[in-house]
Amino acid sequence: MALFDRLKDQARTLQQSQGGHGATGGRSRGTGSGGGSRAQLVSVLKTQLGSLKTELKSGAYRDASMAMCALVAAADGHVDPAERQHVESMILSNDVLQNFPPEQLRQRFNKHVDQLTHNFPHGKAEAMQDIAKAAKKPTEARAVIQTGMVIAGADGDFSQAEQMIIREACAALGVNPAEFQL
C-alpha cells in the first residue's frame, strides 16, 4: 500500500510540474484496503498521459509501449489467455494509444507476448530493444514508464515482478526509477 501511495503522490507532483490537471485534486491518501489509492494512481497516470496525447504519436512510442505492456503482462513468467485479452482491451481503450490503428497495436503486443511465452529471456531482450528506442525523447520515455505502470496497477496488484520489469525499462530508457518511486 505504501508504494502505491508514494507513486500516487509522485504522479501528482510530476503532473503538476508538467502543467496538467490533477485527477485527485487536493486529496491525499485513500483509506481502507488501499484499492482506492491504486485506482487513484491509475487515474492520475492516465490523466497525465492524456494531457500528452498530441505529443505521443511516434512509432517509437507505439512500439515501446506495446513492448512494455507485454513485459508487464508476462512479468510473472506466463500470460494466460484471459490476462492477454484483458491487457489487449486496456490497450485498445487507452485514449493516448488511440493515436494508432488498433491492428498495429494488437500485432505488436501479441508479437511480444508470443516471444515472451515461447522464450522469456529472448522475448525480454527483444522487448527491451523496442523500449530503448523511445529513449531519444524524454517525454516519450517517461510516457512508456507511465503506460507500464497503468497496466501494472490496473488489477490492483503492483507485484514485485512488475516493479522489477519497470525498473529495468527505466534503465533502458535512461529514466531514473526514483522519479516513479521504484
UniProtKB/TrEMBL annotation:
Pfam families the record matches: TerB
UniProt region (Disordered), positions on chain: 1-38
Domain Co-chaperone DjlA N-terminal: 63-181
CDD domains reported in the protein's UniProt record: terB
Basic and acidic residues: compositionally biased ranges: 1-11
Protein's name in the database: TerB family tellurite resistance protein
Domain of life of the native organism: Bacteria
Annotated source species: Streptomyces sporangiiformans
Biased composition (Gly residues): 19-37
